[in-house]
Design a protein that fits this description.
With 156 residues, the protein is of the alpha+beta class. Strands 1, 2, 3, 4, 5 and 6 form a six-stranded antiparallel β-sheet that branches. It is elongated and about 55 Å long. The longest helix is centred in the middle third of the chain and has 14 residues.
Length: 156
């Protein structure tokens, strides 16, 4: 296994541990494909003329599209791949959308362990990873807390 994909020791799952993903630009094609996949053709996302009349002044990406990209960028990052052998399951997800994401915005994800507590099963913990999608202007556009069940030690 390449060194960047080797599992990290359990201390990497402690509060304060963080890493950042590479960036990805949200495109017109992303918005059209997501609208088709989800069935969400809200005019704010797909109608440029209508969107010009809103406080945003232009179309915005679906919040759930940006959340999905945030998830994908995280799981493709070397920081997550090193933690992946510990991950058992997603337990809970809470998110908010403090700023809009526009066509052409590039986002990267900052991931930070914000909480760790013992789980009911010995050898397991619940770890909350705060994932923040940050655009090229340094604005947080999505903040999501993923509570994950993790192994305290990776089984050989």
């Amino acid at each position: 296994m390449p060194p960047e994909l080797q599992p990290l020791p359990a201390p990497a799952l402690q509060v304060g541990h963080s890493f950042r993903s590479p960036g990805r630009t949200i495109t017109e094609a992303d918005i059209v494909a997501f609208a088709g996949l989800s069935g969400d053709f809200n005019r704010l996302h797909v109608d440029a003329e209508y969107a010009r009349t809103t406080p945003f002044g232009q179309r915005i990406a679906h919040g759930l599209l940006v959340l999905s990209v945030l998830s994908g960028l995280t799981t493709q990052s070397s920081g997550y791949r090193a933690l992946e052998p510990h991950v058992v399951a997603l337990v809970d997800l809470a998110c908010r959308f403090p700023k809009p994401t526009f066509v052409g915005d590039t986002i990267a994800v900052q991931v930070t362990v914000v909480e760790r507590r013992a789980a009911a099963r010995p050898g397991r913990s619940e770890v909350t990873f705060r994932r923040e999608a940050v655009n090229q202007r340094g604005e947080v556009v999505v903040q999501a807390d993923f509570r994950m069940l993790v192994r305290d030690e990776v089984e050989a």
